[in-house]
Amino acid sequence: MWHVPAVTDQLDPLHPFTTAQALAAGIPASRLRGKEFRRLSKGKVGLCATKTPSAVLDAEAALLGHPAGAFASHTTAADLYGMPVPNDPVERVSVFGPEQRRPRHGVHCHVAVTGVRVRVVEGVRVADPAHVFIQLAGSLSLVDLVVVGDHIAGKRWYSAAGMVEVCATSREPHAGRALVAARYVRDRVDSPMETRVRMLLVLAGLPEPTVNVEIRSELGDVLVRFDLAYEIVQVAVEYDGRQHAESPEQYDRDIARREDIDNWDWRIVVITAKGVYTDPETTLRRVQAVLVARGLAGVPKRFDPRWRAHFPGRRRTGS
Questions:
Q1: What residues does 237 pair with on adjacent strands?
Q2: DSSP alpha helices (H): ranges in the chain?
Q3: Cβ neighbours around 67 below 10 Å, total
Q4: Distance between CA 207 and CA 288 in Å, rounded?
Q5: Residue spans per domain, the chain
Q6: Rounded CA gap, 277 and 190, in Å?
Q7: 192-310 under CATH 2.60.40, yes or no
Q8: Per-residue model confidence as pLDDT tens digits over 265-318
Q9: Separation CA 301–CA 317 (nearest Å)
C-alpha cells in the first residue's frame, strides 16, 4: 500500500496540488490515477484521498498557479464563508491585474479593482464579506442578494448600515445594484426564509415588519420572540419550516406558545414554504387582511406589482 508522501518544497499532499508538482515530488502518474488521490470536481488538481472535501480546499485548489496576491472571490468566497448562495459550476478567484490571470479549466479568474479588501480565512486569501456581497450582485437576484446580506449582518461581519456604507463608496462593478439590495438588509435575521417572507411583504408594498421582536415580562424576561412583527397592532408573521412538523416535541412547544400568544391578544400569521414559493399572493392577502382588521395605517388596497418578478409562484389552472 502506498503511504502519503512527506511534505516537500514541491508538494504538501494534504493540500491541493497540480500534477506537475506531484511528478516533481517523485509521485508516478500511475499512482495519481489510483484511489489514494482524488480530483476536485471543478478543476484538474489532485488531492490526497484521505482528506475530506471542503470549501476551503476548493478555494485552495482554485488559487493554485495564480500569483500570491490572488484571492478567492464571488461564489467560491461565499461557499468558504458558508453564505447561502446557489451552486456555481465553476470556482472563482480574483487578481489585481489582467496580466495576472492564469487560465485553467473549471476556474474563472476575475480582475478586481483597487480597494477590494481581502482577509485570510483558514490560511486562504478571500475577499472580505461585504465585497463578496458586491461581487454577487452581478449574478444574484435582488431577493437572493438580500438573503446573503442578512446572513452577513447576522454573522456580525458587518451591520446593515455598514453594508450600505461599503456599497455606497465602492468603485467595483455592480456596486450600484449591491447598494439597492443593501438598503433592504436588516440586522439579527435568523434564516433565509425569514428574509424571503419579509421581502415578499415589502416588495408588495405592505408596511415593513420589525425583525426579531421580543415580548418581555414585567421583570424583563423574554417570553417570546417573533420572526417579524407589527408591534403597534400586535400582529406577528412567523415562518414555519417543515422541520417543526417533523419534530413532535417542537410541534408541541409551538402549539403551547401560540396558545400563550392568543392570551396576550396577539394575532399570528403562520407562513410555510408553500406560501412563499407556490402561492405567494394568498400569503399577501392573508397578511393584508389581518393588518386591515387590526387597523394598521398605510396598508395598501392594491399590491405593488414588483413582488411578482421575485415570487412568481405556481400558475393556477385556467388563470
A1: 228, 269
A2: 19-24, 29-32, 55-63, 74-81, 129-136, 142-154, 160-169, 175-182, 192-203, 242-246, 248-263, 273-277, 280-293, 307-310
A3: 13
A4: 10
A5: 59-182, 192-310
A6: 19
A7: no
A8: 899 999 999 999 999 999 999 999 999 999 999 999 999 999 999 999 875 544
A9: 25
Q: Are 145 and 182 in contact (CB under 8 A)?
A: no
What's the rounded Cα separation, in Å, for the pair 9 and 272? 55
DSSP calls for 183-228: TT--TT---HHHHHHHHHHHHTTPPPPEEEEEEE-TTS-EEEEEEE
What is d(CA 43, CA 145) in angstroms, rounded to the nearest whole number? 27
How many helices and strands, by DSSP H and E, does the chain display?
14, 11
Contacts of 305 (CB under 8 A, 6+ apart): none
Closest CA to 70 of 99, 40, 35: 99
Closest CA to 134 of 120, 152, 121, 156: 152
Judged by phi (left if over 0) then psi (alpha if -120 to 50, else beta), residue 318 lies in left
The whole-model pTM stands at: 0.85
